Amino acid sequence: MAGRKKSPIMPAVSSITREKGMSVSASGYLRIGATDVDAWMDFGTGVLGLMDAGREDAAGARFLRMDDHPFRLMIEPAEADGLIATGLEFPDEVAFLRTCDAVAEAGHTVAPGSAEETARRCVTAFATTTDPSGNTLELYWGRTLDYRPLISPQGVPGFVTTYQQTGDLGFGHLVLPAADFDATTAFYTQIIGMGITDILYPPGMAGAKIHFMHANNPRQHSLALFNSQHPLGVVHIMVEVETMDEVGRAMDRARSAGSHFLATLGRHVNDNMCSVYLLAPGGIAVEYGYDGLLIDWENHVTTVSIEGDLWGHEYSFPGVND
Ligand SMILES: [Fe+2]
């Protein structure tokens, strides 16, 4: 078998890195660019029920909390709306440094964050890189937590971001555009240390394919790749609450605020998420759901679906269906 070309997708590698505790822990935070930061904050606090962290920022960013992390969403003034970067959390310094080395060895630029930018993210260290499809990532470790109680302005009791008290599930999940699909999948599975949970061929979208990937936590997927481009740099992000009533209350708030419902209530086949999709100011789709699956990866087998939903999730794109 000498000289045989290796498959670009080697799930066994991510299994090995997971065993050594070297793989990515979670999708920890998002940096979102907004042409109207105040409108995004009104949506984040008034509709999603997130807490304004009340942090000062020299560049005028605002910060939204979901738990004891100092922020999960950073909303930054920008000329164009869209995702700026995804923060990927590593369990410790060793895992962080080894991953940075592996990313650099694979030929990607890895830029260490300055002291000022590190403090802004409330992390011990971070480095910026891009995946093969051009998505900007910030690899980090050692977050400084905020122990002030989470007080949702809408009375949301809590967001699903932890397990067994201390394990980090991350902020939720996100779907990134990946026009260079195979190389980008290999980047996350072989270098970052994710595993492919399941594969979806969305019905009615010829040629479309999604890889749902898990980090080293039980959330069914922390990051997914869609084999296309997207003008906002992200297909959607997901925020999870604890009960159906909290989803329903958010739906009421969204209606009162005049938010666009991108999809009706529905339940996904893969992560079991019962959710609606709303459009944030500027156009990023935000899935708001509950009941997401937590998985023991020890015995997991990657599955393939040709249906995305058990029921519901009827899509309504602004300017197309209305
Ligand atoms: Fe989702």
From TrEMBL:
InterPro entries: Glyas_Bleomycin-R_OHBP_Dase (IPR029068), Glyas_Fos-R_dOase_dom (IPR004360), VOC_core (IPR037523), Xdiol_ring_cleave_dOase_1/2 (IPR000486)
Keyword Iron set for record: yes
Cofactor(s) the record lists: Fe(2+)
Pfam family, one: BphC_D1
Domain (VOC): residue spans on this chain: 26-142, 170-291
Entry GO MF terms: dioxygenase activity; ferrous iron binding
Stored SUPFAM superfamilies: Glyoxalase/Bleomycin resistance protein/Dihydroxybiphenyl dioxygenase
Entry keyword Iron: yes
Keywords, comma-separated and alphabetical: Aromatic hydrocarbons catabolism, Dioxygenase, Iron, Metal-binding, Oxidoreductase
Coiled-coil residue windows: none
PROSITE patterns: EXTRADIOL_DIOXYGENAS (PS00082), VOC (PS51819)
CDD domains: BphC1-RGP6_N_like (cd07252)
Family: Belongs to the extradiol ring-cleavage dioxygenase family.
Protein name: VOC domain-containing protein
